[in-house]
Write a structure and sequence with these properties.
Length: about 475
């Protein structure tokens, strides 16, 4: 835990007592703050009280006594309208911050030179965070990973000069971190997302920009117009900007050329790393993730050899194009995290002969946006509520069966893929649907796929059981 000494001796209000909220409250108490916490969920309030956190309905509190208000990132700050606690804090002029802001203040107090890599973007931030942390750990660096992935940031070990932090940041967390100041800030990409919480795309992009605007070096993917404009704006403001691109050769920066990761300096190119043969980093989207990790790791002092070694040993993230097993030429891929068509597109673009398991609780638009990938699909195996609608979209373009259950789909896809000749065949779970018709969440669905695949005679698990 990181004791939040920056608010020692201060009276602090806190709203939101989920896992990260309780962790933050305990860090504040450990650091010497006088904390009063609340949540709209009585069960959360009870859990907090059971671990010694003082609770009371903040609507009855004297807000003039609070020096700071710590808000859970899941609670509306601006849209669709501010939460009642936000309005009370603003009415009394109390600053509103989150756990990432507390971390930044503690780093500034304890070890301002501690390498800090902060990563955001609409897509790919979890993989990039995990990859960057893996490269650092494999190079024997003292590494802490958390934030919007894994551990709540205030549960990490306290800052020390040689301790490296890799922190995934959501837009909600950035919005509550006015002094965020990474050594290397990464903004991967921007597409419309969370607009119910941010109002407009312009506001969403402006929040994401804050992370890289406060960085020593801003690493920005420029394959979308929003991020390209942000990179240009930061450069005009005198910031150190490193551009990355998964599809465009650059004059300066880092870009992907096939499976080669290239550095460009004034128009002169050199290869700094490669992804050939790294199954956990297939696809153009992972090239962008790897480029960001390479640039960030170079910034904090790793060698190219250390970085390449880390890339090659990266196991990938569970449920995100996770390689779970192989039988001869048949590879089994768990992409259960792909809960809509846009999320399924990277996996479908990464393989040439796909036995595709899709379906569940359909999102708006179905799989029509994936039509361009249909020629890659040898056969589709449809499950769940979406099966009839998906079969209508596939029509005569793709052979399909309505398998009904995931277990049946895995069995039938494995049988058909085994008959394939002429190269690798991939049994791919990339559902393009939510899981809630048959599974509690996408993790349970992915676990069921992994278990079904590895139960097939002759399948050799990859990476062990997670």
């Amino acid at each position: 835990m990181i004791p939040a000494a920056s608010l020692a001796g201060k009276r602090v209000s806190l709203f939101g007592l989920g896992g990260s909220g309780i962790a933050t409250a305990r860090a504040l108490i450990e650091g010497g703050a006088d904390v009063l916490a609340w949540d709209d969920n009585p069960d959360s309030v009870a859990k907090a009280g059971a671990v010694g956190i003082a609770t009371a309905d903040l609507r009855g509190a004297d807000w003039t006594k609070f020096s700071a208000f710590v808000l859970s990132p899941g609670v509306p700050l601006t849209h669709p309208k501010p939460h009642w606690s936000v309005e009370l804090a603003r009415g009394s002029g109390v600053e509103i911050i989150g756990d990432i802001e507390l971390f930044c203040r503690e780093r500034t107090l304890r070890a301002p030179a501690a390498p800090f890599i902060a990563i955001t973007g609409t897509n790919g931030k979890s993989t990039t965070t995990a990859l960057t942390a893996h490269i650092l750990k494999s190079a024997a660096r003292d590494t802490q990973m958390g934030g919007n992935i894994g551990r709540a940031v205030m549960t990490l070990d306290p800052p020390e000069p040689a301790r490296h932090y890799v922190v995934e940041c959501s837009s909600y967390q950035i919005d509550l971190a006015p002094s965020i100041n990474p050594t290397a800030g990464v903004l991967l990409n921007l597409t419309p997302d969370h607009l119910d919480r941010h109002g407009t795309m312009q506001h969403y992009a402006a929040i994401k920009e804050r992370l890289v605007a406060g960085s020593e070096v801003a690493i920005v993917g420029i394959d979308d117009s929003w991020c390209a404009q942000i990179a240009d704006r930061l450069e005009r403001a005198g910031r150190h900007v490193i551009r990355i691109s998964k599809r465009l050769p650059l004059t300066d920066g880092y870009f992907a050329s096939g499976t080669d990761l290239m550095e460009a300096v004034h128009g002169r190119f050199s290869r700094v790393a490669f992804l050939e043969g790294i199954g956990s980093l297939r696809g153009q989207h992972n090239a962008q993730n790897a480029l960001a990790a390479v640039a960030a790791c170079l910034k904090v002092g790793l060698s190219l050899g250390e970085i390449q070694s880390g890339l090659e040993s990266f196991p990938g993230l569970a449920h995100r194009m996770e390689q779970v097993g192989r039988k001869g030429h048949v590879l089994f891929i768990n992409d259960s995290k792909a809960t809509n068509a846009d999320a399924a597109a990277p996996a479908l673009s990464s393989f040439n002969r796909i036995y595709w398991i899709a379906g569940g609780l359909a999102k708006e638009g179905g799989i029509e946006p994936l039509r361009g990938f249909f020629p890659r699909i040898a056969k589709a195996y449809l499950i769940g509520d979406a099966a009839p609608a998906f079969s209508a979209t596939l029509g005569e373009a793709v052979p399909y069966e309505i398998s009904g259950t995931l277990a049946a789909a895995v069995e039938h896809a494995a049988r058909d893929a085994a008959r394939e000749s002429g190269g690798e065949a991939v049994v791919l779970l990339s559902p393009a649907c939510a899981s809630f018709d048959q599974f509690r969440n996408f993790e349970v669905r992915g676990d069921a796929f992994r278990q079904a695949a590895n139960a097939i005679d002759g399948v050799k698990p990859i990476g062990g059981t997670r």
